[in-house]
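Predict both folds.
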Amino acid sequence: NSHLKIQMSQLALCAYSSLCLQVLLVFAKEDSQSNGFCWACEKATFRCSMARTPESALECFLEKHHDLVIIDHRHSRHFDAEALCRKLLMFSKQICHGGVWVTTCVLSLRPDREEASVMPLINAGFNRRYVENANMMACYNELLQLEHGEVRAQFKLRAGNAIFTALEQSQEAIEITSEDQVIQYVNPAYESIMGYQQGELIGKEIIEVPKSEKNKPDLLETINSCIRKGKEWQGIYYAKKKNGDSIQQNVKITPVIGQGGKHKDRRKGSLDVRSTTSRGSDGSSQRRHSSMARIHSMTIEAPITKVINIINAAQESSPMPVAEALDRVLEILRTTELYSPQLGTKDEDPHTNDLVGGLMTDGLRRLSGNEYILSTKQPHHIPSHLITPLSLNDIPPRIAQTMENEDSWDFDIVNLEAATLKRPLTYLGLKIFSRFGVCEFLNCPEATLRSWLQVIEANYHSTNSYHNSSHAADVLHATAYFLCKERVKQSLDPIDEVAALIAATVHDVDHPGRTNSFLCNAGSELAILYNDTAVLESHHAALAFQITTRDDKCNIFKNIERNEYRTLRQAIIDMVLATEMTKHFEHVNKFVNSINKPLAALEENGGNSDEENVKSILTSPENRILVKRMLIKCADISNPCRPQELCIEWAGRISEEYFAQTDEEKRQGLPVVMPVFDRNTCSIPKSQISFIDYFITDMFDAWDAFADLPNLMQHLDNNFKYWKGLDERKLHSLRPPPE
């Protein structure tokens, strides 16, 4: 005999909260306008489907029932847009989701010269007309207006219908009153328990309904006082049935806040049916609440729990818009993947899906008889013919000449690779480490550094098209370039610089030319050793220290003090592990929120005059770690920011390595991690566009805002346009065909 009572100021039932909208684009052919809406859907994180004919549009609509349909009305020769709209709305009325009838918002895309009446469009069922404009931001703004207007209104309507159905079916007695205590609704369960019919109660004030004498005299005033403050009241209440009997009920009275309402507590706005079940006076409800109280009173809290509790407390006295915004914040904080963007909008782009899936997951585990053996072999020793009495003073002139501009971003690593017979890491390492005084910092002879560089390079696989010592040398070069930037120098200590150079040198040592997903799927020994988690990155870091410390001839750490070695070691390991792509968005987001935004706020409030605050942001131990992670991440995947010829060269190399992996997966019967990287069908321009869009742009925007890298951003823009140009010509190759 439980009784749930709801007091309204204005009832606003809304199930809409950051939902991923389904959008159907109906365009007979691809053009800049359709591309504009596709881009806008992706930016707004909406799921987007494309249909070319009325038949395929209807079929797609019946399968997914889209929230928004955009129909191209510019070319009547392709199809009758108004007839299609009528059919869609007819189908919409025939579709029932969870017992709720739904409708769809439909937009008409008209030519930019047409000034005809909108009445035919309204009669056909269109909600809105969009005049032809392929500008991407115009498309994006139109989608946002639709989302917050017609589409949101329909979500509210659906939610209202759904909640009304829930009230009707509920076994709990539910009574809804207006703010001035007039009964507006009682559900069938209330009628059954209390013996009244709806017609006997609707429109009457609560005081007109007989009350039980068993309630305490001041109980009603206590309840009303709670409700006026916007707070929920829960307790034992004696109700009087129509036949005069009194029954004891465990009652929850909740003020429901709507738009324009006075109450401010939104946290209890939804109906917790489980907490109002018919328990009578058996005490089980009180036990539940006391156990929850113990949990919330525990002193062992995670930081995220403290944040949620602080927000909950702030909501108590917040104005309505702030309370609603904090509700949305809490929804985000309660998710488990705080930094990973959802890939739902990428369904139409297999290149992005495959690339992201291949780089950011640990593979699809499937037992097979094909086990990929790796890591059982011993680290490589230096072949005798490679051991030369090399020092900075006797580098061959031809090699020295190729390294003359090694401090420039446009330095050509491919030329050095050719000049050194695929041993660029040793030569470039000697010069860069000398420039940064690494030997002096480590108190090690140049001969030890030379031996170390040679043995590290010997453990890179020259047979890999991409992950070889040339890539390591390229990342070392980028790292050295970033370390010379003023903001970076302000943030890092000498030990950080040395750690960054060493981490760049070893970050892919003994890379097998296969992704983590491949190794996990193949059941490799490395995957088993590292529990399918950051397999390669863990191996690179561990092997680097094994190689370094096993032989005094190449142990560059031999002469440094123990505590300094521990600090250096931890920094190197952290940076190497930061190159693993599953944590990409976490590292970038933390960098932006902990460093970029506070620095921007200081600049807005008076430039860089507040040097102490700037320094405290740049040099805090937590932020130094974030800077080092961001530095090596940007250095590791900086290929799209290189001069165009180098960008094309690296794109060809990574594609070939992925092609080889796909070939081997097919040969061994393993799951194909990235199906689009089939050498017979792959579009290299599309894969580069996806990589730049998904991983590169935001990261380098953030890094440029910190380190000031206009030349890199110009290269990135030029390279993106280059790949876009090839893709628009439907070319799959690295370069256009000869004229």
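Second protein follows, with its predicted structure tokens after the sequence.
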Amino acid sequence: MNGFLQKTLRYILLTENGHKILKGLLIIIVGLMLLPTISFSPVAGFVNGVKNFFEGEGDLEDDTDISAFLGDEFSIIEMRYYKTVEAVRAKHVEEISEEQKSLAESVREEHKYTVIVTDDKGNEHEETRYPTVDTPLPNPPMVSVLAYFCTTEEIQIANGKNKINESKIKEFYQKIVKRPFRVIERSQDHYIVMVEYMTEQEITESLKSEGVFKDEGDVDLFETSIERIKELIDEAGGFKYDGEAVGQISNVEIAKQIWDYFKGLGWSDYATAGIIGNFEAECSLQPNLQEKGGTGIGLGQWSHGRRKAFLAWLESNGRNISDITAQLDYLIVENTWYGGKITLYKSGGLTHTSKAKSLSEFSTYQYSSVQEATEDFLWHWESPNYQKAQIGRRIGSANQVYNLFASGGSGNISSSSKKGKDPTLYFPAGNLPRNASMAEKHMQTISFRNSKGVMRTVKVNSSIATDLQTALQEISEAGYEIKQIGGYSFRQKVGSNGLSSHSYGLAIDINWDYGNPFIKKGKIQAGTRYLSHELSMTEGSIPVRILEAHGWIWGGHWTHSKDYMHFSITGD
């Protein structure tokens, strides 16, 4: 049977007639398995340079290459092609970060201001103050770049010796970085310089307009390549360089307990979020969890010699593993940190250099992003098997913790974010409607064009309609796509006897199916997983920033639950 499959594959992949058959099949069955009995899907769209491949110049040279796809030998992160792109990506990050920091200095200088201060002797004098300017670590895509060269060059991922021209990779990264860098103003004292990159869709449109993609078949193959490469990287335990950090906190109460513990010790928001994100991936925040088939135990899954020392400490100090504080106390006592440049276990020689030199320094180190802190703790405290590291889950969970508890890094939610306005202010004589027919009289439907030029409508309280319409248009003009929006709906609050602010037309929901869920007690009640889509809204993002400026309050600031899709005038 295996011989028959191999013979069939050789015909399809190495002959001109086979190429024609394959192209037709790929366009028809994008996203499906070609042969159910084998893991053939990785071949689709990126087995070698599609352009030359479909002109009749097959690149698979022998049975060894084909067999790699039939068995378990193929690992994309072991391919030279993958490593070449990865190395150039790292160099690009270094270069673009310097440019980002240079702009940050300019922003800091541009937005300095003077204040009059009084010294201890009662004398007044001017003092120059400079804002803090954050520079989150750039996160250029990996997957779409791999797919691009597979589609446009003679690239064969199955060939472990294959390598691509580094200058071409560098040029492509420069092509897809968005300029000018985005400068976000959070307050007079806080700015952010963001380096952003084209999305996969934007790259596709750019390549179509340039004529690189000749027809829809080329587009289909490029998009299929992206999906298959994502699967292969995930299966091989590689970093999710496509920017999809997809972790989700399993237990918000335990996360908050850990957060309060480390913040009580004076740890930074980034470091604390990074630890919790790592603990989530290690044990789903189950303090008593013991690894199946291994030696890991507890929040940090202490294993082997570290496990023995951990359990011995608990016993000698009369503490119990079910005591979360005891585990966190031990983490401080253990004081483990593998500093400097280390080779990641089972990574094929990849290395990581820690920013912090010790656990103590990690606790207050000025990381540029949650991701940077999460990765430092991952590789220099956890030090796991690279192929099973689940980096995307760790970063995603850490980001959620940061958004849940840090409120943009300050640790406190501003008063405007906590307290809304009385709904009676928006009805004549302060009489709130008691039923839908009464409420309908005070509603108005507004319309706007989203960032893609598509007309959207939403029904809201007529007293705030004009201002909201302006805000939604500003959001769209700034480039954020509102795919979904809902407003007035006469209904009860979830889990309460009171009426929802939607009943008064004073609340809207945006993009609930695009990574903006309602989360209660750590579980998603509505919507899709937080931070699972590029349209997920975070502190300082376009819609949050603009709607807050217009007096709306974001459900992402709530304390006991989180409603990332939700904005309201009333604060509930």
